[in-house]
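Quick illustration for those who missed Monday's session on complexes.
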Amino acid sequence: MMMVRKAAVAVVGVLAAMLAMAAPVSAQVYGQPVPWQMNFQHAATPTMAEVINFHTFLTWLITAISVFVLALLLYIMWRFNAKANPVPSKNTHNTVLEVVWTVVPVAILVIMAIPSFRLLYKMDVIPDAAKVREWYPDVNVAGTLDIKATGVQWNWSYEYPNERIKFDAFCANCFPGDPVSPTSPRLLETDNHVVVPVNTLVRVLLGAQDVIHAWAMPAFGVKQDAVPGRANETWFIAIREGTFFGQCSELCGQGHGFMPITVEVVSKTRYDQWVVQKRAEIETKSGVKFAAN
Ligand SMILES: [Cu+2]
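Prediction with copper (II) ion bound:
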């Protein structure tokens, strides 16, 4: 009896933990992996919301297919075993059946391919604000921002060309003794955050200084290679404020695990303050004043 009670408590505990993982997150979102996580991180962009929906759709589809195949197998074991069916059929062909088992899987693949290619297209093409509104009518596009990210062995360098801001982002807690906290997870926190305003179409131009890196941000549904000598691009529009963590996702050498990406999504007001602050920082460091514009 005691064992049963213990098992029941364990099951309830696991279910509660799973529910807690699925529960909506607080206002201050930290897009980062959690222990025992089984699903994606919460979507912070409409693209990621679409990726999650597509994944859910595929999961149901493959579950239905697996259950159907299992049912067929069980039926055959029950109906056509040597005892139940002592005289086996001598049939070798059945044209109708063969057409069905070819056409139905092809139809299923087409059903999967259409939303898949539609989503891939949206992720690949850099849209303008009007296009984003057309794709995601619920999203309020407040403006655009261009960022240049360069992969370097082993850190990311960022440039905001229109704001004339430039900085490097190194891992802030990759090494023994570095400070780690729940809001500053190990191997994910950088000393300089990429700060972007919420509801803004951010276009990211990607390059690399030495070898291939990849700029990946799971909560944004973004993963794009940064290739030396080649300009790649990607985009996102974050619709939730918070701090989000990603990593270089192309094996780039021994320091590959130590070049995380931290993106802070803030209000437009806070972003404008950050730009002023960052420029002042750059002026102090370089001793050169920005020309008034
Ligand atoms: Cu890497």
